[in-house]
């Protein structure tokens, strides 16, 4: 037998046996792994089933049309009226001009410049006989209103824009007691001309310190004939009432879908979500509400609003806007005199389905809520309201007088001035004094302007009070020539906002409106502040801020305050705080005057004292030089910076 290698002899059987063993182990391991995985999946806790929620019956969101040109073409409109409005008056005038267009054989639409692409103004020439009207209010230090800010920026930034095909006119709304009277209206009028647009009628300017309604009506009476002449059209002569909304009563509706006073989003007062603004106000708790004056028949008050957790930020000089409600007694009287159930749920729906403004106020709601939260029932109604309501007077003499007051005739203007404005007749007083006038409540609700937010200068500094906003105001209440007692809506509402009312904590819907009224950027700059009465409000914030800066070790310039009121022992408000600030050096000099504590009047010239150096900032509350006998108008040579709040 030949010799054989022992390793060679035993190698092959060994390899076969090992391969077979590895294969078995592999299968066993694989089976174990698969079994474990199956066990894990089978034994794992089953997820809880997702409950099925009933789908909410909400309308499908629609994409808002940002092209006003396409909308005008689609709806056959050739006149567009843009408005820049802070208190609602410019928007009201815009609506009136848009309705006028129909009487002149044209079709108008109202537009908020914030909602459209204003770069399309150059395309307006694509529409035959087209015209753009701008009703622009001026706010604060000659600023645009919030909704016109983007339009203002666009005008400033687009020097190469060609508006040669644009026909336009402008009506501005302002107040002559302010330094920058009608600045926005003047700017828009001039700027559009610079960019090549054609002005078809002169700039109109309304003065809210005088008679804004008369200014508008006089301008409007001349404006439309100029339009007719420019486009070669004639008035249709149709002076009938034109309804913009139709009434729908809801007899069977889920009350959770009914607005109860919310400004924007339904139930926004129940579930608060930042950011907070004019369409989404924050419900601030009232933590302080105290009377400031020691005596007298007036009521000057100091309120503090808690903004903890709201993420609201403010600076000294800003304004706080509050949304008041009408007196329930007035609302009930309106319901009684018109014989209407105020708790009926209604909607007023725009007859123009293409309009962005579907309702005049949040709908659906009740008449009571509309008259309490959404409509202005205390101001004397404007002439267009009287004109529209005249048709419902059963006495021909009442009809005649109402139409006369709405006309531009000298007799009509005089009658409106004396019977409505001078007598301070609101809509309730007019209905009481005209027994034959009983309009449908839905048409009245369509015509009345919106109840607007009220703005107050913040009387605190966020450096000292980051979670609190202070308000200083005087309650408005007076007797009219008819013997009625008229009360200011917001101030009386605030007066009654007790810290706790029947166990409930009082809240105020509010938001912040930024202002240009500021302390100098450099804390070392000297400041002279002039604030009579409650006009001292913003300066309380400035004084607090300069005191805080001194506490931080910062160098602070000289700070002088001029304050005046009627009687030292009655309405010298914040006396302890002011005298304390002078004592601790925050106020360099406190000058006070009391107009009724002596026979003669005291006057000061506001040239800075010798200790001041340029640049000195002179900060003046509104109307100080015209309403305060002890204050002389400052000379321009005295100061390098003059700012009115």
Spans where pLDDT lies below 50 across 5 or more residues: 1-22, 45-63, 609-614, 625-645
Distance between the termini: 125 Å
Structural class given helices, strands, pairing? alpha/beta
Count of extended strands: 25
Strand content: 15-25%
Number of helices: 18
Kindly report the average pLDDT value.
87
Verbal overview:
- By secondary structure, the chain is an alpha/beta fold.
- The strands form six sheets. Strands 1, 2, 3, 4, 5, 6 and 7 form a seven-stranded mixed beta sheet that branches. Strands 14-11-20-9-10-15 form a six-stranded antiparallel beta sheet, with helices on one face.
- α10 (396-405) packs across α11.
- The protein starts with 5 loop residues before the first helix and ends with a strand.
- The model is unreliable at 1-22, 45-63, 609-614 and 625-645 (pLDDT under 50).
- Keywords: Endoplasmic reticulum, FAD, Flavoprotein, FMN, Membrane, NADP, Oxidoreductase, Transmembrane, Transmembrane helix.
- It is an enzyme of class 1 (oxidoreductase).
- One of its GO terms (biological process) is response to hormone.
- Residues 79-224 form the Flavodoxin-like domain.
- GO terms for molecular function: flavin adenine dinucleotide binding; FMN binding; NADPH-hemoprotein reductase activity.
